[in-house]
Design a protein that fits this description.
With about 170 residues, the chain is mostly helical. It has a domain of about 70 residues: Orthogonal Bundle (Helicase, Ruva Protein, domain 3), CATH 1.10.8.640. The radius of gyration is 31 Å and the shape is rod-shaped. It starts with about 20 loop residues before the first helix and ends in a 5-residue tail after the last helix.
Length: about 170
């Protein structure tokens, strides 16, 4: 019976038996985090000051037309939407901030008037939950990929390990 030599160039750490390629997934996670961070930092937000059409459209896009089904004030030609856009323009001309304008509409029509949830309380959970789910999904995928073994690096069971040790100590001959 001849026992072939074991590939000594496997990517396993001798002390742990784990693949040293496992640390490669950490780099992929790090690259993903840096990429997402770069996107968030580079993402230009809507205008928050001034009286221009860009700000008017940005604000009216976040306010729901109460007469239309799922349509913003920016896209609707319903009489109430036209009035709401005019009110946004008046408040912009008075120097009101975006939050003050949204507060005016919430006080007048209730929280249902905003198309985007608030960034506090339950609204914060709505914004953060998808990010957390994606991050956990990436971590699970990275962990699974890290556990996969390269071809030829399968671990030996104790009986096979004993045979290999015996063959090595005997110099490969019986």
């Amino acid at each position: 019976m001849t026992v072939s030599s074991v590939d000594s160039s496997s990517s396993q750490s001798p002390s742990t038996g784990r693949s040293t390629g496992r640390s490669a997934w950490i780099w992929w996670v790090l690259i993903g985090v840096v990429s997402v961070g770069g996107i968030v930092v580079g993402w230009g937000g809507p205008p928050t000051t001034g009286t221009g059409n860009d700000r008017l459209f940005s604000l009216s896009e976040q306010v729901k037309c109460l007469q239309c089904a799922g349509e913003s004030v920016a896209n609707s030609q319903a009489p109430i939407a036209i009035e709401m856009r005019s009110e946004i323009e008046r408040q912009m001309a008075r120097g009101q901030t975006n939050d003050e304008i949204f507060t005016y509409f919430v006080d007048r029509y209730g929280q249902r008037v905003l198309l985007n949830p608030a960034g506090t309380g339950l609204g914060a959970v709505i914004w953060i939950l998808p990010v957390v789910v994606v991050a956990v999904g990436i971590a699970v995928i990275a962990a699974r990929l890290g556990r996969q073994r390269a071809p030829g690096t399968a671990e030996l069971d104790p009986e096979d390990d004993a045979l290999v040790r015996h063959a090595r100590s005997a110099g490969g001959s019986e």
